[in-house]
Design a protein that fits this description.
Layout (H helix, E strand, L loop, with lengths): L4 E9 L7 H17 L4 E3 L24 H13 L2 E10 L2 E9 L5 E6 L19 E4 L2 E5 L8 H10 L3 E5 L3 E3 L8 H22 L3 E4 L4 E2 L14 E3 L4 E3 L5 E4 L5 E9 L26 H14 L4
Parallel strand pairs: 1-2, 2-3, 7-8, 8-10
Antiparallel strand pairs: 1-15, 3-4, 4-5, 6-7, 9-12, 10-13, 11-12, 13-14
Helix pairs in contact: 1-2
């Protein structure tokens, strides 16, 4: 990309009903139309927007191929409203399942896809990671994509650094406890609530590029696939979607409610930086030692995923 490109980006923070793909896509289109009418040309929805986030074996029943309902919808609305639009869905490829982010162009074609590299904690029971490229080339520029937990890892941070992207999209399904208990303090809640936006700011500082962070709203109430760690009551998606400009300005930000966060950003090669990507075990930032136990849960999940008969 030679000359700077100005565009209006929108993140759609919304509630997704578990397993109700049609209703979620219809609801998403209402938000998309509003964003397009306000001038948005790049519109990003949360991770698993069409599917919700219910982590049970029924999740596989809602998996789609690349010509399924979600991609068909993405193509239609991109062309109808003249926008770039993307979200992630559970992709079925033979007997394999991936968390796949698809981006469509205004002409109604697929610009490209990025699959999640690192299924996080219980996700490993339901889909596998894929080590492909972390960007999509478009006429706008090179668009980096990190799906939820991937953004928090050194591995993906290094991939983004090496890919020289012009803008970063971060779709999340990120939920946290809503109250303190014996295991979660007030300080923990504050740290967890702000973690995605802290990571978004880190990418901006490292690479000097705009960052679009989008998360869901609403309660999260799903059974867990294992009893190794009991699920506590009272989880919710923390929201906090935002648009960060290349100079580090947070141009627009939401709290936890549904809504559209929209702002103009500039993709400018001259403003980009090549920072040293920090490494703290597999993460980009320091944290409590207890977080390493998630590796054990993911290991059990991978084994279950690959041997499960229903899959």
């Amino acid at each position: 990309m030679n000359s700077p490109v100005r565009l209006t980006a929108a993140a759609i923070q919304m509630i997704s009903q578990d397993g109700n793909i049609k209703e979620n896509l219809d609801r998403a289109e209402t938000f998309l139309k509003q964003a397009a009418e306000k001038g948005a040309t790049l519109i990003v929805f949360p991770e698993f927007m069409p599917l919700g986030y219910r982590l049970t074996r029924e999740l596989w029943d809602f998996a789609e191929s690349m010509d399924g309902n979600t991609v068909t919808w993405l193509k239609r609305v991109a062309k109808q409203y003249g926008v770039y639009v993307g979200t992630s869905f559970l992709e079925r490829a033979g007997n394999r399942y991936y968390n796949t982010f698809a981006l469509t162009e205004p002409g109604g074609t697929i610009a490209g896809c990025v699959r999640k590299r690192n299924p996080s904690i219980w996700e490993a029971y339901f889909f596998q990671g894929y080590r492909g490229k972390q960007y999509i080339d478009t006429p706008l520029g090179r668009i980096g994509v990190g799906i939820c937990f991937d953004n928090h890892t050194y591995e993906v941070g290094r991939q983004i650094a090496e890919s020289n992207v012009d803008i970063m999209l971060m779709p999340h399904s990120y939920c946290i406890p809503t109250s303190t208990n014996k295991m979660v303090s007030r300080e923990d809640l504050e740290r967890l609530s702000g973690l995605p936006s802290s990571v978004a700011r880190l990418y901006n500082q490292l690479f000097g590029i705009p960052v679009i962070l989008v998360n869901k709203s609403g309660a999260w109430d799903s059974p867990l696939p294992t009893n190794l760690i009991p699920k506590m009551d009272g989880y919710a998606f923390s929201g906090r979607s935002c648009v960060i400009c290349a100079d580090g300005t947070i141009a627009a930000e939401l709290d936890a409610e549904e809504g559209i966060v929209l702002a103009e950003v500039q993709l400018n090669s001259a403003a980009k930086k090549q920072g040293v990507v920090p490494k703290y075990s597999r993460y980009l930032y320091p944290g409590p030692a207890g977080r390493e136990i998630t590796r054990v849960l993911e290991c059990f999940g991978k084994i279950s995923y690959f041997i499960h008969r229903k899959r």
